[in-house]
Structure formats: structure tokens, C-alpha cells
């Protein structure tokens, strides 16, 4: 991420010297190809994604499902537009619409997961900060300020390292404050991007709230409340004033400690909000109580027990004064009161820790997000909650379609399996197999059941509607299951599994008895496919650079291929030509193998030479889709000699898996960003009839 210093602060110290900004207003950016996907926007910081999107109209990003809940307050309602909200999706800022799930816009520039976010009071600016990058030395964690109207970046603000913790716009939008795990506090001028104040604390600033603004001649002064753990419990909360010093020609921060009880009150603070009249500050703590501070007198007033497992989120209704508290135990409570007197006026329970609360414009509903990745709309009156969306919260490792075109399944590294409906992106079924390791692979039995391989070496089958476990195969391999495939017709029904132990095992689908096993690979089996014409043939590839074909009737290996370098990572099979098997490797090569030839009959090279994590031939047989470590989904035209037909960028981390819908009109991809990308594919009509 490029940056250059502009207008250094008058305070010539380490803070102004280290913090830099890049602004669109001061730099001319080089032209770059426009993405055909109009939902994707980004600024200069997104140079890693330069010139990508769909290379033509064949592949279009329809929708992205994702929200991890790893960081607090990363889902916020727009303060002006009553249906718009903003959330983080990995390293992408997503602008969504509660009235239309198809309406999404993406702001790309970060290269690590977003850890902090803020929207200005007018809604004209969005600020986002990230975890320190591992792609460049120094673990820099830039802050990017976006123009909501144009969806372009205004400033790229550098200076923080490790992780940005908090971002807060001042009430008049003149300043943006940012704190980080590097114990630094920066305040930037939003007219110029210049650092006006910087300070290093002994510990990270864990709370920061702008309070009132006082007009003092030419320049206003700003009341600020912050918390940075110091030498003892008495000096955690500080009442500050940010004012301009004309003598020193710089902004200064004057602080005084808030008076605490004489016996001491040690707390770890999670959240804070001001009362509508700015007279009180309300703080959520790790013990689950809400502390009340009188700002006029800078004194502690009360401790109000609210929940268990910490009071993580607080939101205040500016019109009614109602206080909404989101707890670590999943409780959402509505409190009314003032000073030392508070009463409970409503309560509901969500599915897990509430990490974000934000009242929507219109003042009738509130958005809530939980640590399980679930997003809710909550009525302010009675706290009745409706699910907007559910999400995975960890790396999604695999995806699969059954016989239905509008239903697919996904699995993640925490052992969760979800079944989705493409018509409204809702979750039909969810399974959480605890203490099993992650889900490594998925396959459907028609459209009624899902077979999943797990890291604990078990194969489990679940009902696709109820989630009930139908059966399991314990210790199917030595080590984790790496791939699974199902074949079922009127004559033959079996399950094939591959494992970390290099074995390929075939199980009777009716009773799960082991029919036969082949132990010829020297390393992990990375891909298995049942032959499209002769289901008695099983093709497998391995990280030992071998591609083998086994005959279930002859009960032996019948074909063997090997390369000297480039471990095979996945495989698929053509439906046309000679039904060649396609293998993919870590160098981005697609090799086409005919059983009658010892060497590949064709090779297609990924232009980026990126490691390929999945390869799938389309249902018509004309196209092959791949995904990998360059964050892209690519479609190649097999009829046109393997030419690259389309490129789509939706993910912000490695793409781990993809699958075609049965009608070839959509592709679903999943990745390490815990996002599910749904692509519309417009080459289906061309592909029909390609296979004779």
C-alpha cells in the first residue's frame, strides 16, 4: 500500500513523522481497467487487485455472504439511509441493503482483515482500519477513509501497526481519531488528512468517545473521554479536552482522571456511549455491569448489573434515551433511567455474544450482530428479532451442489456445515459437530443427504433438511479425510474417500462396509473423481505427484501417471473429447491426461501462475473453473483450446473451493475470508450442446 507524507503536523515528533496519508485530492492516480462488475470499487490501496473483476460479461458477482464477528462494532447502520448498513467481510467493506439482499457494493483496499470501522454522523464518510499486514515488513495497519457517495477512497492514513482498535469521527466530522494495539492515539484532520495530534500511551487506548464541542473563538475545543489502563485502577478513565494552542501552533490534549470510588474499582472496559444530553458516559465492562460517569463533575456515579460474560455492546437511542445493552451471554436488554436509577424495560436472547449494536435511521429498528456471524433486525419497541443473514466465522474449506440447482452446502474449519437456498441466501440447515476438527470435504447423496469428511478421520452423513446425523464411519483413514465422492445409480451405489494416509477406500453406500481399498499413493490424496462414463473407474491424484486410476471390477490399478515436479492438488474430468482427467498443481498448471498416453495431451497455464486449490468442469463440459491463492475465480473455455474466458474477484483471501450449479448458470466459491461468493455465469447458453 503506497503512501506519502503530506502537511506534517506542527508537532515535530515521532507521531507526526510516522503517520502519513495519501489523498485523492492531492495525487493523480494512473488509469486502470474498469471492472465489469459494477458492485466492486476500491481505491489506490487496492493495487494488489489492479485490473481485475470480470474480464467480460460472462461472470458476474451476484452476492457475497459473510460476516465473522471477530471484531466489535464492524456492523453499523447508515445514519441517514434507513435501509443501508455497512459491515466488514474479511478485508472488504460491504455496503448492504436490508430491503434488497442483491444490492451490495464493495470497497477494496485493505490486505488484511478489517478490525475497526466508523461512519461519520452525516453518513458521508466511512473509515476502516485493519490488522497489521503480513505482506510487508513492519505489520503496518493503515486506516482508509471512504467517500460514501462515490465509493472511492479519500485518504489512506498510515502510522498504526499491529492492529487498529477503534475509529471515531468527531460530531462535526472535522477529525477522525484512531487507536491501536501499538498503544498509539492519532487524530487526523478530515479536511487535509494531516495528523493534528499523536500520543503514545503505556497501554492501548481501549475506549475513545467524542463528547461536546465548545466554541472558543476561531477554533473550537473538543471534549473527549478515553480509557487507557495505567498504573492502577484509579487512572483508567480520563476526561480530556482537545484544544488548539496558538502559542505553540498545535493541537494539545489536556487530561484529568475521572474520580473513582475511594475503595477502587478495577474494570476492563469493552464499550461506551454518551447519553443524549452528553451529561453521562455509560461504559460496558468485562464483569457485565454498566458503569455510569457524570461528565460535568468527572465522577463515577453507579454500577448497574446487566449480564454475564461481559457487556460488549452499548447503543443509546438519541430520541428516547433508551439504552440497549448487548452481552457476552447473548442477552439484549433495554434499560431506561438516569444517573443512579435504572430499570429494565425489555429483554431478548440472541444466539451468541453480541458484538455490534447500531440503531437504523428512522429510529424504529436496530441492527445486531453476534460472534456466530448472525445479523439481526431488532424492533426497538419490544426487541423482537429477525435474522437478516447467517455466516461462517472461520475459513470455509469446501462447497458442493446436489441434484437441485438452487441449494448448496458449505463446510468450515470449525466443524460447521450449512445448507443454503440461492433464492434468498437463507440458511436451510446448519450442523455443528464440535470437537471433530474442521470439515474438509463435502458430497451430496442426490438432494436428500450430505456426506462430509472431517479432520478427526470420521465420515459423517446428515439429513439435508433437518440436520439429523444419519450415519458415520469412524476412523475411515489414518489421519484426516481429504476428499470424498459419491456415486449412486440403479446398479451401483458407493462412497469413495481419500485420506492423509495416501489411501483410497471404497464403501458400500447402503451399509457403509468397506468394499475395497487401494494404498499406492505415498503422500496425501488430494483429489478423487468417479469416471463420467465408466463408474467402475476411480481417478485419484496425490501430493506425491502421481495420478492413478483404479478399476473396481478388476480390483487393481489400471493406469498410472507421474510428473517430476508439481504436486497435484485437485482434479476433475472432461465430458467431451476423450474424457481426459484434468489435474491442477501449485504452479497454476492444468494438465489434461488421456489414459492411452504417458504424458499430458494438453496443458493450460494460469496467467498468474497461482496455486490452484480447486478445479471443476462445468455440467455442459465446455468450461472449467479454477480458484486459488490469487483470490480469483477463473473460467477457461475448453472448446476454445483452454483460453481464459472470464475472471472474477470477490474474495479477499485465498479461495479454497468452488462448484457449479447443475444448470451451469451459477458458480459458488468459498475461501479463507469466511465468505461465500455467488456468481452468475452467462456462458451456459453457449455451453449447451458442446458435449456430443
UniProtKB/TrEMBL annotation:
It holds the Pfam family WD40. InterPro entries: WD40/YVTN_repeat-like_dom_sf, WD40_repeat_CS, WD40_repeat_dom_sf, WD40_rpt, WD_repeat_EMAP. WD repeats lie at residues 157-198, 389-430, 474-517, 648-680. Residues 1-54 are annotated as: Disordered. One of its GO terms (cellular component) is cilium. Residues 23-37 have a biased composition (Basic and acidic residues). The keyword rRNA-binding does not apply. Keywords: Repeat, WD repeat. PANTHER family: ANAPHASE-PROMOTING COMPLEX SUBUNIT 4 WD40 DOMAIN-CONTAINING PROTEIN, WD-40 REPEAT PROTEIN. This is Guanine nucleotide-binding protein subunit beta-like protein. It comes from Triparma strigata.
Amino acid at each position: 500500500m503506497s503512501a506519502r507524507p503530506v502537511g506534517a503536523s506542527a508537532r515535530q515528533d515521532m507521531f507526526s513523522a510516522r503517520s502519513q496519508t495519501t489523498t485523492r485530492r492531492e495525487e493523480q492516480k494512473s488509469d486502470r481497467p474498469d471492472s465489469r462488475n459494477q458492485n466492486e470499487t476500491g481505491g489506490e490501496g487496492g493495487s494488489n487487485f489492479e485490473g481485475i473483476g470480470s474480464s467480460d460479461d460472462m461472470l458476474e458477482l451476484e452476492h457475497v455472504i459473510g460476516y465473522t464477528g471477530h471484531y466489535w462494532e464492524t456492523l453499523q447502520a447508515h445514519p441517514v439511509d434507513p435501509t443501508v448498513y455497512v459491515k466488514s467481510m474479511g478485508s472488504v467493506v460491504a455496503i448492504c441493503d436490508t430491503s434488497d439482499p442483491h444490492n451490495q457494493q464493495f470497497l477494496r483496499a485493505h490486505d488484511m482483515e478489517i478490525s475497526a470501522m466508523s461512519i461519520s454522523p452525516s453518513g458521508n464518510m466511512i473509515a476502516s482500519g485493519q490488522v497489521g499486514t503480513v505482506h510487508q515488513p513492519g505489520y503496518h495497519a493503515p486506516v482508509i477513509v471512504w467517500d460514501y457517495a462515490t465509493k472511492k477512497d479519500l485518504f489512506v492514513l498510515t502510522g498504526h501497526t499491529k492492529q487498529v482498535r477503534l475509529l471515531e469521527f468527531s460530531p462535526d466530522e472535522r477529525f477522525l481519531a484512531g487507536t491501536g494495539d501499538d498503544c498509539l492515539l492519532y487524530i487526523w484532520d478530515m479536511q487535509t488528512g494531516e495528523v493534528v495530534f499523536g500520543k503514545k500511551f503505556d497501554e492501548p487506548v481501549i475506549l475513545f468517545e467524542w463528547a461536546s464541542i465548545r466554541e472558543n473563538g476561531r477554533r473550537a475545543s473538543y471534549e473527549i473521554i478515553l480509557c487507557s489502563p495505567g498504573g492502577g485502577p484509579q487512572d483508567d478513565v480520563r476526561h480530556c479536552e482537545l484544544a488548539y494552542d496558538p502559542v505553540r501552533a498545535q493541537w494539545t490534549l489536556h487530561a484529568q482522571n475521572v474520580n473513582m470510588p475511594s475503595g477502587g474499582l478495577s474494570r476492563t472496559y469493552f464499550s461506551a456511549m454518551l447519553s443524549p444530553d452528553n451529561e453521562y458516559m455509560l461504559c460496558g465492562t468485562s464483569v457485565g455491569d454498566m458503569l455510569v460517569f457524570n461528565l460535568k463533575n468527572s465522577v463515577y456515579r453507579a454500577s448497574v448489573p446487566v449480564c454475564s460474560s461481559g457487556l460488549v455492546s452499548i447503543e443509546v437511542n438519541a430520541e428516547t434515551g433508551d439504552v440497549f445493552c448487548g452481552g457476552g451471554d447473548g442477552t439484549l436488554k433495554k434499560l431506561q433511567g438516569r444517573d443512579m436509577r435504572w430499570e429494565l424495560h425489555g429483554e431478548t436472547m440472541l444466539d451468541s455474544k453480541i458484538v455490534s449494536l447500531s440503531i437504523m435511521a428512522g429510529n424504529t429498528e436496530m441492527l445486531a450482530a453476534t460472534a456466530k456471524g448472525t445479523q439481526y433486525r431488532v424492533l426497538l419497541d419490544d426487541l423482537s428479532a429477525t435474522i437478516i443473514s447467517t455466516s461462517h466465522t472461520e475459513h470455509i474449506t469446501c462447497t458442493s451442489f446436489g441434484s437441485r440447482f438452487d441449494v448448496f452446502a458449505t463446510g468450515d474449519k470449525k466443524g460447521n456445515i450449512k445448507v443454503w437456498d440461492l433464492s434468498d441466501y437463507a440458511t436451510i440447515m446448519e450442523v455443528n459437530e464440535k470437537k471433530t476438527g474442521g470439515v474438509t470435504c463435502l458430497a451430496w447423496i442426490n438432494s436428500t443427504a450430505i456426506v462430509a469428511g472431517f479432520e478427526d478421520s470420521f465420515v459423517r452423513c446428515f439429513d439435508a433438511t433437518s440436520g439429523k446425523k444419519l450415519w458415520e464411519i469412524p476412523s475411515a483413514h489414518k489421519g484426516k479425510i481429504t476428499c470424498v465422492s459419491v456415486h449412486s445409480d440403479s446398479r451401483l451405489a458407493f462412497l469413495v474417500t481419500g485420506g492423509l494416509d495416501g489411501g483410497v477406500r471404497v464403501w458400500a453406500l447402503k451399509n457403509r462396509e468397506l468394499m475395497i481399498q487401494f494404498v499406492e499413493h505415498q503422500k496425501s490424496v488430494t483429489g478423487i473423481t468417479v469416471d463420467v462414463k465408466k463408474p467402475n473407474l476411480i481417478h485419484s491424484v496425490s501430493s506425491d505427484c502421481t495420478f492413478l486410476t483404479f478399476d473396481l471390477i478388476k480390483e487393481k490399478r489400471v493406469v498410472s501417471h507421474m510428473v517430476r515436479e508439481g504436486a497435484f492438488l485437485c482434479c476433475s474430468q472432461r465430458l467431451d473429447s476423450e474424457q481426459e482427467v484434468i489435474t491442477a498443481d501449485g504452479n497454476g498448471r492444468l494438465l489434461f491426461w488421456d489414459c492411452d498416453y504417458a504424458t499430458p495431451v494438453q496443458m493450460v497455464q494460469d496467467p498468474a501462475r497461482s496455486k490452484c486449490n480447486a478445479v471443476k468442469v462445468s455440467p455442459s463440459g465446455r468450461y472449467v473453473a479454477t480458484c486459488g491463492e490469487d483470490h480469483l475465480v477463473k473460467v477457461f473455455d475448453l472448446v476454445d483450446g483452454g483460453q481464459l474466458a472470464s475472471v472474477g474477484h470477490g474474495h479477499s483471501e485465498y479461495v479454497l473451493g468452488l462448484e457449479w450449479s447443475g444448470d451451469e448458470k451459477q458458480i459458488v466459491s468459498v475461501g479463507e475470508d469466511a465468505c461465500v461468493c455467488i456468481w452468475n455465469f452467462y456462458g451456459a447458453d453457449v455451453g449447451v450442446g458442446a458435449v456430443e
